[in-house]
Amino acid sequence: MPTQPVTPVRTAKPVRPVTPEQYVQDKAARSGSSFYYAFLFLEPERRAAITAFYAFCREVDDVVDEVSDPGVAAAKLAWWRSEVAATFAGTPTHPATRALWPHRERFGIAAEHLLAVIEGCQMDLEQTRFLDFAGLAHYCHLVAGVVGEVACNIFGRTQEGTLRYAHRLGLAMQLTNIIRDVGEDARRGRIYLPLDELRRFDVKPAEILQRSAPWGYSDRFTALMRFQGERAEATFAAALAELPAADRESQKPGLMMANIYRALLAEIERGGWRVLHQRTSLTPLRKLWIAARTHLRAR
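^ that's the sequence the OP posted. Answer follows.
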């Protein structure tokens, strides 16, 4: 009687555990952020530190953007506060904080830096409007200025003036994010453009929230967005003017990000500020090209 062929038993390949360093690298790469392309030009230890810090910021920001229940999101942010406390007590548990922990002393990363980022994200849960630019600037300080401060220290700051540059650059980039994301934020019921400026240009909040209405792209809205763009561009220029010459070489990654964001802002302007129904972005190849060009020119 012929024997039946024996089907070989297939065994599953063992799953290799993901290290904290690989986790944060994957998190940064998946984001497609302009920051990632600037990181590529750093020496290994600085790249590892900024990648871990960026991954932490993304984790916290994702709580607000991806969790629909405000109560659940608030609980998650509370957990992150406890994780920061545990991290600086020497017992980090999350891959992002475990990857960040070894770099805290060399690069001056403090608990208050991480807590400021969490506080900024907490504002996203509790506040969907800003009365004026002063209130918006405070929010930008928490979610972008503090990030700029940590980044410039990791890149190799030696001058006090570089801190002022980093905070102003963070503000400029966050203002650009706000311009780009007007429609996306409106879908979540948020308006980051200051309400007193909406009134100045006679744009009603409903016109932004009902972004599909045919009158969304009025001359009034275009004038409002042009004003926002001019302020962002002026903030970029002011930031770059404050960067001390002694730190220009070390701060190349920040200059790369500035040039990528300025190119994005110019692209939005060329598109006629049509940000209610679309989110303008640059291709990965273009971002890499801008980063490489900045690296060569150092400006």
